[in-house]
């Protein structure tokens, strides 16, 4: 069966019926079919239901039948905050303080990247994304969008690509510090014109704001207006550290941090994807909810460098919260599967820290699964087409094999997906109706080739940027 999927490219109008699966739809009624089937024609889901009904309904069309033998079928997972450009920087800034992280490692690294580096970095990152079940991601803002777009085209998954944009701040590399607001906006409009809706509609272009301390007011408001004009999203790091809020209070005349200021300049809108959003008070949670801002919660990066975001309060207030990995230098693992597990744990742990007592009911598995699927789709403004297995949506889905040491026995399949599943349990992945990974083999590229390219490119890049990672032990 697996060989068939790899070796026989399907004709455009072939009907594929994936059956005998536990189908977790993530639709608005939270339907799960114990013995379900999903029918795909072209790039679209045309039916979802009980296996028996579906097979008899579609038998006259001679469908391509794929028996999943009780494996789980889910919507593709969505990573709403990932720095694909930083994949070649994995391990260059572990266990260092934030200023060293930024000024001595990450900025020199990113400012020395070539277009080819961005391409290779995104390919490498993409392999990890695909292996962790991701069919769509939101780039957090990186270098050379054209390199990222080339890689996404080849990888076969979906992405909202964003350029890293800054026009102010201390310690910026010279090549970034001299950009005018007009240049920042125009270059993004050019990228939009060139790449938006390319790769069979899999690529969308967003506007980027790295963070408020690196943005003038002029840049913030021009970005707000340009995104509105092109009807696209804005991706921005928001309220990451206490110093950021202090900086905003001191220089921008508001009584609390970034969220309060963004409300004042009308940047808090439903097309804003706010990453991290850790240091927000009760009033600001209300502002996020009222304005329909989407929040990307990145649990590993939070524990690594930032702090505990009030996710429970945001969800209670109706904020759409999704999940992100952040970049390799602040997380190391680009696995949304790990983030699902961590999201539940960090927020349970935060209750103890906050209230002095435990509450294991916080962020239950079904909520975490929503964050990684349908909320992810809402966060990237793509929920009419992806995020759940429903008729009319794009065929983005993953097959999970629970028959292994990590998941057996399965008494509660939803909790098992969040607390037990490892990336190794994800065996196949389809995006836009095409198989991208089958039986753990990625079909769209040669992984070994990418590893060699990545090793060489990262070595040259660190040398060019003058970055030296200190030895921790006595190497002989
Ligand atoms: Zn980030």
TrEMBL record:
<dbReference type="GO" id="GO:0016810">
    <property type="term" value="F:hydrolase activity, acting on carbon-nitrogen (but not peptide) bonds"/>
</dbReference>
<dbReference type="InterPro" id="IPR032466">
    <property type="entry name" value="Metal_Hydrolase"/>
</dbReference>
<keyword id="KW-0378">Hydrolase</keyword>
<dbReference type="InterPro" id="IPR050287">
    <property type="entry name" value="MTA/SAH_deaminase"/>
</dbReference>
<protein>
    <submittedName>
        <fullName>Uncharacterized protein LOC105168450</fullName>
    </submittedName>
</protein>
<dbReference type="InterPro" id="IPR006680">
    <property type="entry name" value="Amidohydro-rel"/>
</dbReference>
<feature type="domain" description="Amidohydrolase-related">
    <location>
        <begin position="72"/>
        <end position="435"/>
    </location>
</feature>
<dbReference type="InterPro" id="IPR011059">
    <property type="entry name" value="Metal-dep_hydrolase_composite"/>
</dbReference>
<dbReference type="Pfam" id="PF01979">
    <property type="entry name" value="Amidohydro_1"/>
</dbReference>
């Amino acid at each position: 069966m697996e060989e068939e999927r790899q070796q026989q490219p399907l004709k455009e109008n072939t009907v594929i019926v994936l059956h005998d699966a536990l189908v977790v739809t993530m639709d608005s009624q939270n339907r799960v079919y114990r013995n379900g089937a999903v029918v795909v024609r072209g790039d679209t889901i045309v039916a979802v239901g009980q296996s028996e009904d579906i097979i008899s309904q579609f038998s006259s069309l001679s469908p391509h039948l794929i028996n999943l033998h009780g494996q789980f079928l889910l919507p593709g997972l969505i990573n709403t905050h990932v720095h694909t450009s930083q994949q070649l920087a994995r391990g260059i800034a572990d266990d260092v303080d934030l200023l060293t992280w930024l000024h001595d490692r990450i900025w020199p690294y990113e400012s020395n990247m070539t277009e080819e580096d961005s391409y290779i970095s995104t390919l490498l990152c993409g392999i990890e994304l695909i292996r962790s079940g991701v069919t769509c991601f939101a780039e957090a803002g990186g270098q050379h969008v054209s390199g990222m777009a080339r890689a996404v085209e080849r990888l076969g998954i979906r992405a909202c690509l964003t350029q890293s944009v800054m026009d102010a701040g201390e310690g910026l590399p010279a090549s970034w510090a001299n950009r005018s607001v007009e240049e920042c906006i125009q270059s993004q409009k050019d990228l939009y014109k060139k790449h938006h809706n390319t790769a069979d509609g899999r690529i969308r272009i967003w506007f980027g704001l790295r963070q408020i301390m690196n943005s003038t007011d002029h840049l913030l408001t021009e970005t707000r207006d340009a995104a509105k004009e092109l009807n696209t999203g804005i991706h921005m790091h928001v309220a990451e550290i206490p110093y950021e809020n202090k900086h905003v209070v001191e220089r921008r005349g508001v009584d609390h941090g970034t969220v309060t200021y963004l409300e004042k300049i009308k940047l808090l809108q439903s097309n804003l994807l706010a990453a991290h959003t850790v240091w927000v008070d009760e009033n600001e949670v209300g502002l996020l909810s009222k304005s329909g801002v989407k929040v990307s919660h990145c649990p590993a990066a939070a524990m690594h460098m930032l702090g505990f975001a009030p996710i429970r309060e945001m969800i209670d207030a109706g904020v759409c919260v999704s999940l992100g990995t952040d970049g390799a230098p602040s997380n190391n693992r680009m696995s949304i599967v790990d983030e699902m597990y961590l999201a539940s744990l960090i927020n349970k742990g935060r209750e103890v820290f906050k209230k002095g007592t435990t509450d294991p009911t916080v962020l239950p598995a079904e909520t975490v699964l929503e964050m990684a699927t349908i909320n992810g789709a809402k966060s990237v403004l793509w929920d009419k087409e992806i995020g759940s297995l429903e008729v009319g949506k794009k065929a983005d889905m993953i097959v999970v094999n629970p028959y292994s040491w990590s998941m057996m026995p399965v008494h509660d399949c939803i909790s098992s997906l969040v607390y037990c599943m490892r990336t190794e349990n994800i065996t196949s992945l389809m995006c836009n109706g095409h198989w991208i990974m089958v039986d753990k083999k990625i079909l769209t590229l040669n992984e070994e080739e990418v590893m060699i390219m990545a090793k060489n490119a990262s070595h040259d890049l660190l040398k060019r940027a003058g970055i030296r990672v200190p030895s921790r032990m006595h190497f002989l």
